[in-house]
Sequence to fold (685 residues):
Amino acid sequence: MTTGWERKSWWAVADIVILVYALAPVLWIVSLSFKPLNSIYDGRFIPAEFTWSNYQQIFRLAPFVSALRNSIGIALIATGLSVVIGTLAAYAIARLSFPGKKLLVGVALLISMFPQISLVSPLFDIERTVGLFNTWPGLILPYITFSLPLAIYTLSAFFGEIPWELEKAAQMDGATPFQAFRSVIVPLAAPGVFTTAILVFIFCWNDFLFAVSLTSTEASQTTTVAIAEFTGASDFTEPTGSISAAAVLLTIPIILFVLCFQRRIVAGLTAGAVKG
Amino acid sequence: MATIVLDKLTKRFPDGVLAVREVDLQIADGEFVILVGPSGCGKSTTLNMIAGLEDITSGELRIGNERVNERAPKDRDLAMVFQSYALYPHMTVRDNIAFPLKLARAGRATIEARVAGTADLLDLTDLLDRKPATLSGGQRQRVAMGRAIVRNPQAFLMDEPLSNLDAKLRVQMQVSVSRLQKKLGTTTVYVTHDQTEAMRLGDRVVVMRRGVVQQVGAPQSLYEQPANLFVAGFIGSPAMNFLPARLEDSALRCILGELRLSDRMRRTLDAAHAPREVIMGVRPEHFQDAALVEPDAKEYGMSFTAHVEMLESLGSDKYAHFSLKGEPVNADELTELAAEAGTAEVLGAAQLVTRLPVASAATEGQRVQIWFDPDQVQLFDPSDGRNLTLGLAVPRSRQLHYLGAGTRG
Fold:
């Protein structure tokens, strides 16, 4: 019993260390977001004086509200498309053998390894020429491009876990290939689909590089860019409080997203660990 | 229910491997046919071609007199049971069994009634609301059977459905499968690598090797009259003993001694154009402890004395193993079978297994005199493996004569 207790307490210590390490900066930002302008630099972890003024201020700033709308819209659309395309592609890669399959997977991998910064200037030129610059599709397209390799990789791993015989069984039971895909394969791959969706969503939500390069106005600027462009109340004040408040707000959708699908993600992340 | 006809069915994989070569087989309505052979013999590929899961390279497949080569699996109205059972893990037992009916757009009432009937038949009623993950291997196997029979298909295809069960349960399930098939009277094609299972279940057994059908027949006829060396070595457990032998004018010479050939045997061998060097095969149960053989039978047969290397007592019988001085038979077919059975050990000497009654006094390490009936000897051509003594029916009376001396149940 003692060894069990000892082991548990060691785990507890390790957990606490990791939690503190990971959460301290987040809590620091939360704390900053509640501090009034004059005590931002007082170095106290718990604000001496609570204020909502930072939050009120960012909502008064028109760019932030439109940026929030842009972020949510662009991230959701990009995630949806990426997961749908990724599911179909991953299924084909996991199940079919066709000429050029290895090449296709290789190219997908290449895209994900490509330094994104090197593509920013060409993309900027291309989008300006074809009229995609500073539009939603102008961001959605590169997001899909860069999240697809991730989606395909995660999903094909999940599809690979599903025994092929299940599909044959469905066919023998009278299903068309699409029926077999829909009523047998997709439900079983659901954890994988959700896991992928979350990863892709976080990627799109957090992106700064493309957002700052390929947008210029409220029409398509996302929150990450909007925050960067915050200005203080006067030229001589830094917008630290507003930035903190906006950063806290930005993490909320992700937290909600993850909490909603937590059970499915956990199932997804552990799928394959236990052969069932 | 329907007849299934395989007409020169051939499968060549894209990489050029010829998996199944011109299989001809006519399966009667309601018949239970077993495809058996070592792994890689093409039995599962043949089954998958019948199912429609593999394309047919050439030849024709007819179900109920209709060509179905080009039909998708779902349009062939066949049900299949897989080795892994392939149950849908996200559905309950009820939904698993109902799945084919739902796809066929059966009415709710029909589905309920059919699922209930099937569950009752297979003793699954209490498990209907469980998920496959919570079931034991035997229960999963029954659910897989249920999913196959619920639709009342033209035929059942079974791909090693019992291989994942432990030995005891497997034997039980063999009995249930056989009973179920008789009760439903549905044409069944069953694939297994286990010859005992094949013998126990099949109305007819198809032995395959390297994509080619070796022999088709009732279990007993395969056992008694194997068409070639491969079938002889494959069917029967323990396997038939093989020894190199040499035909001389009116005698057969082997390491056990010299055997006088009967006139019938000689005529048969002449008709078959037997070569001088042959392979002699004798089943373990055709040996007998000489002490238990009646004197006149002893006169007729042949005896030899050897050292019992190992004795297995199985309660009802004893298996006495001998190591003989002499080269073992060297034939492709037998090497393949030994490799499959995992007994490909290099002994460098001919081995002999005999099945003796418990009354035998044979003991390990002792010498014992063993008798055998020359009429039970089968001879094979080493060049192509064909059975040279095929069609040489064994006189029953004599068989009974010496068996009567023992204490066989």
